[in-house]
Amino acid sequence: MSIEVRVPTLGESVTEATVATWFKKPGDAVAVDEMLCELETDKVTVEVPSPAAGVMGEIVAAEGETVGVDALLATIAAGEGAAPAPVAAPVPAAAAAPAASGGSVDVMVPTLGESVTEATVSTWFKQVGDSVAQDEMLCELETDKVSVEVPAPAAGVLAEIVAPEGATVEASAKLAVISGAAAGSVAAPAAAAATPAAAASTGKDIANAPSAEKAMAEAGLSADQVTGTGRDGRIMKEDVARAAATAAAPAPTAAAPAPAQAPRAPVAAQDAAREERVRMTRLRQTIAKRLKDAQNTAAILTTFNEVDMTEVMGLRNEYKDLFLKKHGVKLGFMSFFTKACCHALKEVPEVNAEIDGTDIVYKNFVHMGVAAGTPQGLVVPVIRDADSMSFADIEKAIAEKGKRARDGKLSMAEMQGGTFTISNGGVYGSLMSSPILNPPQSGILGMHKIQDRPMVINGEIKIRPMMYLALSYDHRIVDGKGAVTFLVRVKEALEDPRRLLMDL
Predict the structure, then answer these.
(1) pLDDT: is 288 or 346 the higher one?
(2) Which residues form a coiled coil (predicted)?
(3) For the chain, does the N or the C end have fewer beta carbons within 10 angstroms?
(4) Catalytic (active site) residue 475
(5) Which of 130, 321, 407, 479 is catalytic?
């Protein structure tokens, strides 16, 4: 029997995706929930799991192809122990109709992307009792990286909201229930929902993950002590670890919230009435955690210098019109700083390295992170191989990444893998600051406001446009000499941009 693998629902306003990577090829054996391929949209990366066990058949949509929602991706030849045929919703549609008519459909958390295991329900757009149309937006989830919209898998009435606003849900958890779904609109979700029902009537006969079975045996736990979060309630290894931790340390878990509230001093009643308490978004929570982890882990030190921006500003003013006409993008200061940093990183490679256990990993490339402020919080999109890019390529990449960051359309892959970061606080008027590292990176350059100041030039006082530079670095790997040398090389390159052309 052949089972179809189709494109899952991608979210409101997202109608197509690109097949990025196939992890399996025709003839390979696949298990239930094993990752088959990865799709990329303009918002998130979506992983497509196998709906059944069997053998990989035909790959219909090759890597690089653009596919629409519910498009056929591949087929699986069901083998011994494969998932029941009803899981393959697109094939036995007629069989699903009687169960779907007047029945209910579960609304599940969609695939959140690689390394993302949970999300927070930020907003429900529908209330219990509201009528919903298929693909109509039901709610929005927030992860530590992106926002994910959840559409209705079928038309009907919202009968129950399982996860209210503010609740933290794991991947594949149930969000809500839609009742009275029409047979024609249920499609895949209805057939998928039939499987848990069948399992409930005959007892749980769904095979748990082998790693989970081993972990349960080692922890001395039985299956009824663990809540499965995999497809159709399968118990995964992470579920066992979570259950074991809860069983081993219930007291500390219950006491955990108390220290978080301790630092807050008592507030007078008249002041409390004028306060507003807002829950931190997951993105803000992640930013806070990562920055605190950086302080706790790295030996962060900051060294300062100042740069005369006369030459860069003169060069920019002279060529900005020609640059815009030829390349279609404005010539800004960021390309000069990016080029200067790439040049300095070649001479001081430890600033571009990272610590991995007891090893130092030197990078023979520069993936430049450019910190950008957005309404949702600080994000750091990465410009890959910036050391091999031209001024025009860098300006185009910064403009494109910045726009996508402000629109909330950056994918997780676009914010990972950076080796060094530049943060420009000068756009907000900052005169001097000490930036904090973006782990596991070992260096970050802080740019600041350009301000006219009196400077002594060849024994004469002259007014020059000056900028303070700050380099924060991990003293575990970067010595003071290396940090100062790096900053001096950046200063020299900016004060005489011709040095970049001469590789001096």
Answers:
(1) 346
(2) none
(3) C
(4) yes
(5) 479
